[in-house]
Design a protein that fits this description.
The structure is a homodimer. With about 450 residues, chain A is of the alpha/beta class. Chain A is built from 17 helices and 19 strands. In chain A, β10, α13 and β11 form a beta-alpha-beta unit. The longest helix of chain A is centred in the first third of the chain and has 25 residues.
Chain lengths: ~450, ~450
């Protein structure tokens, strides 16, 4: 059957049971759902919106095929005729969203869906799945970008990313957030992301001596060989590079750089730099990897380790210190009436909303207001229409444009929010008085209805 | 272009640069790579092998298509003719592996690949990506299964899984480890896993009163409606269920259960149980969800909360307390000679290996020996041949068989290892004297080669 990425069966079963109930009870009015994050993980001071392009691709193309409908018919859960109704289902609604790369904070909708309730409910799970994951990664990657202080970072994390789509989309989200590129070859043709590669320990091990491995690899990539020098002893490896460099130079082969992947990277990079410099290899760069995250990158940069660029792997692609966000997609209005849930710890603000952001004279963001779409507040509105009547209002921006937007957004963060570690100041997100009043109205109406039944 | 899941471009670029070097330098001898976990995360006492079936599917089918080869030709990294050589590349080697569901420990190979070095190197990244992820999830899920003490668990985590493949494969890995099923519809037709669904808060909110929502949903699923009762007030929600139940019963509609998704689940489940029992609804079960993990499930079970089954979501599908393992795929032999790396903190044991496991008279596993394949030790050998000459020696076992194997494996864990929290006893994994002697030989040979150059 179809892979999971484009299948509308990649959803929670309850979306389909609810769809049957909506269908049977003729509930076809318009609903408003908003996607937002309830609270920040303790390790994050801000978030970066990402994944919109893939979510819109999915929304535009979502439909059931015969095989999927066959399962729905056979599985025993659903009523006769339901699959026939599903066959015609398409998304015909509108979507507003923050552009990818936008910095955002808790309780701010980053995506708003307005559509007949079945259409909006249907797609909840996969919209969340796509936007949540890339937002997790972009938010993690942005921290590393800030920590690296303009040194290039490369995504090295495919092997321990959670599956194929996570690997591919983590490369995209990291690039969006300011990484220089990825080791994931697929991301080159698929997203136009620069792809970088060096060599693995196995290559060195497969040769009977390390110098031979270096010679072979350099001969195969005479302009840009990066040699991995820590398989046996890092400083010895650097000496071997220094020894073979003149021989290679005679053949017109240049060693672009060396990679360190283990041990005390600060001390080793200095020792390796001395060996290379003493051999006249001042242009041979040092690249570092090996269990790096933004904290370790920051420590190496701050210490002045002579490392030109970094590979960041597992910690990035699994966002290991905060592998998920409290991201939700909640009904805020149905049939023209605002709605909210009041579950303990999970209450929502009702109504369809916009977010306004104010900057100070230094162009730092100083506070946001979450307001109803009927209100106007000072500052820039962050959500824009991206889909109307089920079709994009314009093509999604090229990834390079989203990446530039993200860089500009990160530049609006006040220094206190750019710090790697808490405590951070709480960024002010004001809920407008009209929303608060609406919440009271909804509660009152719901209590009255409960009494009247 | 092709999605990432079946693309051999979903790999680290360095696998391809190394392939070019192997090709140019005519290094086509046989290599042995082994996949193992270097150490346990602090939150795990044991691991559960999973993902083999998908890895073997990938290995059997891996080949480059024209579009992928076109990018390799155009991207500027590779030599003329390399893409033509890649076009013919197929995996022709052998694979040995632990069956899915096998419990294992650090330094034990769970998969061994023997093939011409380019073929084995080529597929490293995706093999790791597939086996690592499902092993992460199965290992996490097994903890929840042990914690739940035979109460059924349902995977609820698709929305915050890391992409589509992670969502689908997490459902599979959790079921393999003993979950009763998943909310992910796709996993039904794709893997034959039982799929469960209730209703969401949005369904309740879309109705002007909660009782009406319950009536609608129950009417649509007259035999197995599970009603979500915490949208406004959980105990009030239970009272509403009690009120409408007689009216529904007259129409032949039975409420199967209620779901709690927020608040103090222990106290609320007891209060709800009383309300339901007082109304004669003793067969109406209570299902609980909401930020659950194995710790919270265990606490509720231990406290005797009247909850029949649990939905476990984000903590499961992201393995949030240990979102990755230190899983690696390392060259252990090339051209008939054992190989090892000695990088700080990342040294490997050379040679091609088997793992033998001993059980005591209570059928608890008491110690493993990692040995060369030429050795024999007491106990059961855990790796079996699964692929020969690039083809499976037998079809992968049905998921139900792997699930039964996993249950049997978990039963071999001594009580001390089944505990949820550290400190755990260190499980004995002995490295055979022959492997240690081989490591010394390899080091000596490598040092001699380095001196001789």
């Amino acid at each position: 059957m179809k892979g999971p990425s484009a299948s509308p069966l990649l959803t929670d079963l309850y979306q389909l049971t609810m769809l049957q109930a909506y269908w049977q009870h003729r509930m076809h009015d318009s609903a408003v759902f908003e996607l937002f994050v309830r609270k920040l993980p303790p390790q994050r001071a801000f978030l970066v919106a990402a994944g919109l392009e893939q979510a819109l691709d999915f929304i535009e193309q979502a439909r059931f095929d015969d095989e999927e409908l066959g399962w729905i018919t056979r599985c025993g859960t659903f009523a006769p005729g339901f699959a026939d109704w599903l066959r015609e289902l398409r998304f015909s609604g509108d979507v507003w969203a923050m552009p990818e790369g936008t910095v955002f904070f808790p309780n701010e909708p980053i995506l708003r869906v307005v559509a007949p309730i079945a259409e909006a409910q249907w797609l909840e799970t996969r919209i969340l799945n796509l936007v949540h994951f890339q937002t997790v990664i972009a938010s993690k990657a942005a921290r590393a970008v800030l920590a690296a202080d303009d040194r290039p970072l490369i995504d090295f994390g495919l092997r321990r990313a959670h599956g194929s789509e996570a690997g591919a989309l983590a490369a995209r989200a990291a690039y969006l957030a300011g990484f220089a590129g990825t080791a994931t070859a697929y991301a080159g043709p698929r997203f136009g992301i620069p792809v970088f590669g060096t060599m693995a320990h196995s290559f060195v091990q497969a040769h009977d001596d390390e110098a031979q491995a270096f010679m072979h690899f350099a001969a195969s990539f005479p302009e840009n060989a990066m040699l991995l020098i820590d398989t046996y002893d890092t400083v010895e490896g650097a000496r071997r590079v220094a020894e073979i460099a003149p021989r290679l130079a005679q053949r017109g082969i240049r060693i672009k750089g060396v990679r360190l992947d283990s041990g005390d990277l600060d001390a080793l990079s200095r020792a390796v730099r001395r060996v290379l410099d003493d051999a006249g290899l001042r242009d041979t760069v040092i690249f570092a990897s090996g269990n790096l995250d933004e904290q370790r990158v920051h420590a190496l940069v701050t210490a002045g380790a002579p490392i030109t660029s970094f590979g960041v792997g597992t910690s990035l692609t699994t966002s290991s210190d905060a592998p998920y966000l409290d991201a939700v997609y909640k009904l805020q209005e149905y049939a023209g009436r605002a709605r909210r849930k009041r579950s303990t710890g999970k209450a929502t603000w009702p109504g369809r909303k916009q977010v306004f952001r104010c900057l100070d004279e230094s162009s730092h963001c100083v506070g946001d207001t979450v307001a109803l779409t009927t209100e106007t507040f000072p500052g820039e509105p962050l959500l824009a229409e991206v889909l109307r009547g089920g079709r994009r209002v314009a093509p999604s921006p090229p990834l390079a444009v989203a990446r530039a937007h993200c860089a500009a957004q990160l530049a609006t963060l006040a220094p206190a929010l750019r710090r790697l570690d808490p405590p951070w100041p709480s960024y002010p997100v004001m809920i407008s008085p009209a929303i608060r009043a609406l919440a009271d109205d909804v509660d009152h109406r719901q209590a009255t209805a409960a009494l009247a039944q």
